[in-house]
Amino acid sequence: MSTLDEDLARLNFEYLMLARECARSNPAETAWRFGLDKNRIEKLADMTLEHLRDQAESSRAVIQLLPVFVPSGVSMSTYVDLLQPFIPERTDENSAI
Q: Where are the alpha helices (DSSP H) in 2-89?
């Protein structure tokens, strides 16, 4: 396997692992973040590590980059802010987040 294939397989596997964990914990968020429909989310949530690895080593990118369509009447910066995950401001200096 070439270096490119190995790198692509590694990226695919990590992406699929992330998507699977999201599908198992929050299917609605998975639909929004990964652009998957209900059937694909259910299949992904049921996949084993071996099946994820097989899919990852397909020599094709499994990562899907969704096009960004800015609704009319909304500035690009406002739209980008809406796409960012909500991270509350730190209130406790000892907090890890």
A: 3-25, 27-34, 38-46, 49-56, 76-83
